[in-house]
Write a structure and sequence with these properties.
It is a single chain. The chain is of the alpha+beta class. It has one domain: 3-Layer(aba) Sandwich (Aminopeptidase), CATH 3.40.630. A hairpin with a 2-residue loop joins β6 and β7. The longest helix has 16 residues. It is globular, with a radius of gyration of 15 Å.
């Protein structure tokens, strides 16, 4: 099984169509939204400070995330950060290590793409124990007080590059 990250802009039309097929269970959509909403954000934001990344499994997109930096950072993020938004692993591919691989490969990808970025950050619902456990196992640290997000109480997590 060949796993690799690819920028959205480098996907073929067939891969973009496959990417649009990513689905999440309704409970996860509450946190990450849908692939259509993530792609809408990406395709309507004209900025070098946003990037879509797909995780391909044998050349087929099975996961996706948005990265934002600079002028597109939320108020709670460090100015030298890139934030992860809308991390989505296709429902049929979950519990196979793809999220773990995505987070591991992401650090090197961001260092190459945006060398001025010093850390990755994200916001995660405090009740989302599966996600919190994954992030902690991957070396992410809880670095911010909770705040009220759209899905309830959230925590800030940081991974230093």
């Amino acid at each position: 099984m060949a796993l690799y990250l690819l920028n959205y802009n480098a996907l073929t039309p067939a891969q973009i169509a496959q990417l649009r097929g990513i689905t999440l269970p309704p409970a996860q959509q509450r946190y990450a939204g849908t692939i259509d909403s993530a792609l809408h954000t990406l395709n309507t934001t004209q900025s070098a400070d946003i990037c879509g990344l797909a995780l391909l499994v044998d050349a087929t997109p099975q996961a996706f995330m948005l990265l934002r930096r600079g002028a597109l950072l939320p108020y709670w993020a460090r100015t030298d950060a890139a934030i992860i938004q809308a991390l989505q692993v296709d429902e049929a591919q979950q519990r196979r290590g793809l999220g773990r691989f995505f987070l591991t490969a992401l650090a090197a990808h961001v260092r190459e793409m945006w060398p001025e970025v010093r850390c990755l950050q994200l916001s995660v619902a405090g009740e989302n124990q599966a996600a919190l456990s994954l992030y902690r196992r991957q070396g992410w640290v809880d670095t911010g007080p909770g705040f009220r997000g759209q899905a309830g109480f959230e925590r800030q997590m940081t991974f230093v590059l």
